Amino acid sequence: MLKIHPLFIYSSIPLFLSISSSSSAHFFQNISSIPTSSIPKPTSWDNFHTLVGCRTGQNVAGLSRLKQYFQHFGYCNYSTSNFTDNFDDTLESAIKTYQLNFNLNITGELDDPTLTHLIRPRCGNADIINGSSSMNFGKVNFSYSNSGGSKYIHSVGHYSFFPGQPRWPPSRTTLLYAFFPGNQLPENVKAVFGRAFGRWSEVTTLTFTETRLYYSADIKIGFFSGDHGDGEPFDGVLGTLAHAFSPPGGKFHLDGDENWVVNGDFVNASSSMVSAVDLESVAVHEIGHLLGLGHSSVEESIMYPTLSSSTRKVELDEDDIEGIQSLYGSNPNYNGSTTMPDFGRETSGAHTLLKSFLIICSVFGIFMDSLL
Ligand SMILES: [Zn+2]
Ligand SMILES: [Zn+2]
To answer: Where, by residue number, does Zn(2+) 2 bind (predicted)?
Structure first.
């Protein structure tokens, strides 16, 4: 049976499928307000650490789960979903490609750096689609050198697009976004998305306007738990955080089971608070997909697939800006540096007043992108 990946679904999925699994989602003003009962919760990926040192030819419990992981993100193409625990050549090849994409030493073994990377929370979109990678694996200009017996890669990876380079048509310079009514999101959460859209409109010719007409909006934003009808179920705390469809799909789904931090304040984060996720960081990344960008191997870029918990990363990197401007052109007012305020770091009263003003404006339906 053909499995349809959300990246290639351009038509609307019947919304009743999503409604049945809607989530009220968990939002917290800052990391300190997350109750200890919510943290930490181990994810199914944490068990990958038990696989350290596994090599080709071995049979180790848990390798089938790892194969499932690689299959999901496009690193292998087993003909069955009944994965075995054999460390076969296909798995070794998948590990090597993963190591290439994430700028790790290409050993083909499950070494500690590789496993540490594998368990990081990440975007649910695949890194390799129909055998073509948007990351290092899909680039050609690699140079190799040997050092200490290990092979190192010097990455030239940069921004990329989905296969076929889908984008919103030139006639659509203003895109409408709406929030799934069943989530009943508070205004301060909606304002986070307004800021995230603003980061992309600041550097392009695109503008984004919130509408209350969810079903006719270009971009539909919703928090859902587990299976929500598009064949890409969410997996509870951490693991996959969100996913989004390429243009003109417009669907932007976030895992309702995460502990979402709204104001970006991770200053008081302790090591035990491992399950907090910065909402704006994830929103900025997924909007990149909604506009047509694929994943990038540039670790500083917004389009890098992983985001460590309790981490804020909201500034567009040069890699992201070059990529999006090659699709949509540059904002005539963009002078080479972004000016978006980072509310997560603000301390001044003036910024607090500005934030309050923006939230009030959003309550009255004033368009956020025209203010930012
Ligand atoms: Zn992504
Ligand atoms: Zn989804």
So the answer is: 123, 285, 289, 295, 303
Angle value at C-alpha 102, between 97 and 106, nearest 5 degrees: 50
Rounded Cα distance, 247 and 236, in Å: 27
125 CA → ligand 1 middle, Å: 5
Asked whether the domain spanning 42-154 has the same topology as the one spanning 23-36+163-370, the reply is: no
123 assigned binding-site residue: yes
Q: How far is the CA of 258 from the centre of ligand 2 (A)?
A: 14
Distances (CA, A) of 27 to 59, 174, 190, 258: 42, 29, 11, 8
Cα(148) to ligand 1 centroid in Å equals: 34
286 catalytic residue (yes or no): yes
CATH superfamily of 42-154: PGBD-like superfamily/PGBD (1.10.101.10)
In this prediction, residues 231-256 reach a mean pLDDT of: 95
pLDDT at 136: 79
Interval between CA 357 and ligand 1 midpoint (Å): 31
Is 127 labeled as ligand-binding? Answer: no
Domain residues of the chain, as ranges? 23-36+163-370, 42-154
Q: pTM value?
A: 0.81
The CATH code that applies to domain 23-36+163-370 is 3.40.390.10
Q: Among all chains, which residue has been given the structure tokens 């500034």?
A: 315
- Helix%, strand%, coil% for the chain, nearest 5: 30, 15, 55
The catalytic residue among 286, 299, 322, 346 is 286
Per the prediction, the chain carries an average pLDDT of: 81
